[in-house]
Amino acid sequence: MTDPRTAPYLTAAVRNNAEWCDAVCRSHGVPGAVEGSVWSSPRRTPPLYPDAVTLAPEATAEDVLARIDVTSPGASVKDSFATLDLSGAGFEVLFEARWIHRPGGEPAAPAPRWEPLTGADALPAWEAAWAGDDTDDERLFLPRLLDDGAVFLAGTEAGRITAGAVAHSAAGAVGVSNLFAADDDLDTAWRSCLAATARLWPELPVVGYEGGDDLAAALRQGFAPVGPLRVWLRTDGSD
Q1: d(CA 6, CA 23)
Q2: Does pTM surpass 0.90?
């Protein structure tokens, strides 16, 4: 059951994330739409992004499965309230995490300054720094995202990007995702990120989701967990 004290924060985090997923999909020419309590795309979405996102705890497995391509392996669903059971449809839980929220106007501790990328020419270097050894020839983050309001924050050392995150303002909050640091110092990365979002959006809360050590680092920097989520992956391609 959703805690009524944190329900508005959870709603903001879920809606913000769904709008970010929609922006990434649209940048790749993949259409998405909201129908009822589900955002979904009938076509397979870009890597790491779901085919559907539930927007309310009342969403059912039938609501989700009717709107996505389940004819082949690879479909994924962001179960935003951890309320679905998709195992009977050939899905397995890929990971679990917690939505997080940090109120607007709260100062961040001193940290190295991060700046937004100023043009599309810098995106490939940012993506390579984020991906590290998993760098692929196929780009995930395309220039159209900059036109849709995405801000790619970067920390640099000797002219090289060594840390960063994506920030996206939607649903009355700033969603932060893809936070990374080459030296794995997540606490410093979060402080730099929060200082940057406070400069850009001084009154807006910051939301996102994390798990494991990433979640622990976020909580140390003033975030609070506001609800669970699961991501399901379809590994069975049979009808």
Answers
A1: 26
A2: yes
